[in-house]
Each structure stands twice: as structure tokens, then as C-alpha cells.
Amino acid sequence: MLDFKSLNPLIHTPVRLGIMTVLSQQDSCDFNFLKKTLDTSDGNLSTHITKLETAGYLSITKIFQNKLPNTSYSLTQLGKMELSTYLTKMRNILQQSEI
Amino acid sequence: MLDFKSLNPLIHTPVRLGIMTVLSQQDSCDFNFLKKTLDTSDGNLSTHITKLETAGYLSITKIFQNKLPNTSYSLTQLGKMELSTYLTKMRNILQQSEI
DNA sequence: TTTGTCTACTTTGTAGTACAAAGTACTTTT
DNA sequence: AAAAGTACTTTGTACTACAAAGTAGACAAA
């Protein structure tokens, strides 16, 4: 019995997998960087970020930079752990494929 | 710019990724085998199968076995191609993760 | 013989989700 | 001071995943 059900759905969604992946590569980044990197709409990105924050997977820092708001995000310990678990499971699944 | 958007959503859903993975391992299998292997409800499995068939990713063969209906599924060429593309993209994404 | 149970699915109703359009708040330009 | 721009957030809608309920035939018991 292959365990597809345990793939964390909070991470599995492409946009959120993207956010988590980007944040695994750098300690933190801001809204516009994510928006550019993932090529999503403001609204979509914002709601996905909120979900990840609510889950405790990322922390948010708001400052003013050049008189403009600037919000940056980084993975929490929990977020790193959950991403790590997700990656392990997904890698196992991909290995199962014989194509 | 990482290309998370191009992950084929018809394959990405866990149950359907499961179906495709199982069918990449064996030429064909039947409804009950998928149900057991993926641990899903009848209804859920049925609708996911229909989606994959509508997309042309798998073909369906219905017979009677011991006076009971028996339906088996196998990947089409298109299905194999799309799975292959998905796997490549997902592997690239997983490689990006630094955790 | 008809009532009930079993297998093997399919259809349908609902609750939840992803997305972009619209909205907010502040700044800069004209 | 009116308009346009930046940096987001909130909201409405269209879609989706899921299981409960439904269908159809086989066999069993009453």
C-alpha cells in the first residue's frame, strides 16, 4: 500500500510548494521576490502565504523600506521539518514510478 | 523563475499521482487493486479514474469474471508521456530544495 | 418468490480550495 | 488636489475532492 494520502496538502499545492522551496534556499525573502519567482497574482500569493503562516510554517516580518511597506518571510523550524518530511515522501513516490 | 505552474494538475493530485504510479509499475490492474493499494473510497477512486480517462491518460477494459463485473485500467501512450513529463519537472523541483 | 445481502462500481451533494478582481492604505507625481 | 503607483489583503466565484447514496446484477435465506 503506497502512502499517497500522507503527502501534506498544505505543502503539496504548487504555489505553496514553490514558496517553501524558495524559502529553503534563502533565509528569507519578500513578497515581490516570491511573486516574481513564482509568477503568481498578488491575491493568490497572499492567501497561500496566510495559509502557511496560520499553519506555523513561516514567520512574517513587516518593515517600512523607502517609505513603502515591505514584508518578508522565512521558514520556521516546524516549516523546515514539514518540508523535509514532504520531500522524503515525495522522493519515495517518484522512485516508485517505472517510466 | 521556478516553473511550479507547469506541474500537470491532472497528475499532481495525490490519488491520481497514485493511480498513475501504480499503472507505471504494471501493464494493467483492476479497480479493487487500486482501491486497496491507494486506500481510497470507491466514489473518490471512481471520479479520479474518470478524469484520467477523459484526459486520455488511461484506457478502460470491462469484462465479467466469475459473473461479476471487473474493470481494469492501463496507461495510454499519452498517459505515459504526461507522467514522464510530470516526473521530470517534479524531480527538478525537489532538487531545488535545500533542506 | 421476494426480501435481503454482497460485489463492483457510478452518480450526486456538499464542503472546501485556488484564483483573480476588487479593495485598502499610503506615497509620489502632475 | 487629483491621479497613478506600490504593496499588499479581502472577497466572490468557479472548480474540485470526497464520501454518502444510488444502480445493477448475483446469490442466499425465509
CATH fold node name of chain A: Arc Repressor Mutant, subunit A
Main β-sheet of chain A, in a few words?
A: 3 strands, antiparallel
Number of domains of chain A: 1
The helix content of chain A, as a percent range, equals: 55-70%
How do the helices and strands follow one another from N- to C-terminus of chain A?
HHEHHEEH
Q: Estimate the strand proportion of chain A.
A: 15-25%
CATH first level of chain A: Mainly Alpha
- Mean pLDDT across all residues of chain A, rounded? 96
Radius of gyration of chain A: 15 Å
Largest interchain contact: A-B, 33 and 33 residues
CATH architectural group of chain A = Orthogonal Bundle
Quaternary state of the chains? homodimer
Shape of chain A: elongated
Task: Walk me through this protein's architecture.
The structure is a homodimer of 99-residue chains. By secondary structure, the first copy, chain A, is of the alpha+beta class. Chain A has a single domain, classed as Winged helix-like DNA-binding domain superfamily/Winged helix DNA-binding domain (Arc Repressor Mutant, subunit A, Orthogonal Bundle). The first copy, chain A, contains 5 helices and 3 strands. Chain A has helices at 9-12, 14-25, 31-38, 42-54, 77-96; strands at residues 29-30, 58-65, 68-75. Chain A has a 3-stranded antiparallel β-sheet. The two termini of chain A are 19 Å apart. The interface between A and B is medium-sized, with 33 and 33 residues. The structure holds a DNA duplex (30 and 30 nucleotides).
